[in-house]
Amino acid sequence: MSLTHSTTASEAIETACSLRFDPRGPACDAAVSLPQAAAADAGRADAVRGEIEVTLDLRHAGPREVLLRYEIQHAGGPENADAPVVFVAGGISANRHLAPCRAYPEAGWWPAQVGEGRAIDPRRCRIVSFDWLGADGRLDVPLDPADQATAIVALLDALDIGRIETFIGSSYGAMVGLQLAALHGARLGRLVAISGVHRAHPYASAWRALQRRAVALGSLQCDETHGLALARQFAILSYRTPEEFDARFAPPRVVDGRVRVGAEDYLDHCAARFVGRSSPTAYVRLSESIDLQAVDPSRIGVPVTVVAVAEDRLVPLADAHALVEGLRRGASAEAPRLHVLSSPYGHDAFLKEEADIDTILRDALSASAPAANPNQEIPA
């Protein structure tokens, strides 16, 4: 096992297309680096990145040498090295860079919730994140969500982190968090599972299967880029809702002798941004991994906060209720909490409903926080 750190240069990490848009604004906002002055205003929060080589025994592929890439954000010097650890994980297109900091001023994929003054504040905890196993496209084998949990434990061991105080997972990250809680509960204090549950719904799995067929069709035509773009467009439709599209996009019109619908420009733009930073192999294998999700909630003994969205077409509300009922049969001394949001953004509500998610995260982190040190001062 080898452990290396890199803090000398920023890496160009782009934000997922679906991260920000306004129904009155452009089709899809671009991710941009913060101006130099704004980067300086990121305050004392800094980050370290590294890579760790480990051998993991994958459920469906046996022992494999893999490279785990991580980032840790934290404000403060060595005297704060024992600050509680919060692990944050997003969807299959998310990466280790969550929010801007001094070392890496790029926007990241969740700046609304991570940063000084945000719900997940680097002045109060060490914030750990990593690139999903298989995200670089080099691991062309079936990947179980349990494999990601095993990779997280290997990362914690290498970083000499005995316990995660709170694991915050959204979408695929929530699924992996449930695996971690079921398989390695002693390493975890509390779980926040947002828009991800103990199983993959058959309807959502069918949707993803068609996306993977689009990638395969592109490959057969020697046009992987087009296949991946089409798959991403199908995915965007599953992330959002008819209500949002109705409010946002104009009726179809005839352009150059063909009918073009109002959402096509938006979908094309999102697809173009996605294929520029994604691997078809990674997309297929991580999409498959979602469909392999299978956790018995009654095996989970840590406190869990479940966040569901009534309009989420990938994770039906009934499955969130079933998860909570299963968790109640577990060994946790604290009853599971369920928050149900209503949002036209559907599955992407964890990216868009910033105020609601902020409130839920602050509540969960407050519940898991250790007793305050009266001598510790945290600037406002």
UniProtKB/TrEMBL annotation:
<dbReference type="GO" id="GO:0008899">
    <property type="term" value="F:homoserine O-succinyltransferase activity"/>
</dbReference>
<keyword id="KW-0808">Transferase</keyword>
<dbReference type="InterPro" id="IPR008220">
    <property type="entry name" value="HAT_MetX-like"/>
</dbReference>
<protein>
    <submittedName>
        <fullName>Homoserine O-succinyltransferase</fullName>
        <ecNumber>2.3.1.46</ecNumber>
    </submittedName>
</protein>
<dbReference type="InterPro" id="IPR000073">
    <property type="entry name" value="AB_hydrolase_1"/>
</dbReference>
<dbReference type="InterPro" id="IPR029058">
    <property type="entry name" value="AB_hydrolase_fold"/>
</dbReference>
<keyword id="KW-0012">Acyltransferase</keyword>
<dbReference type="Pfam" id="PF00561">
    <property type="entry name" value="Abhydrolase_1"/>
</dbReference>
<feature type="domain" description="AB hydrolase-1">
    <location>
        <begin position="95"/>
        <end position="353"/>
    </location>
</feature>
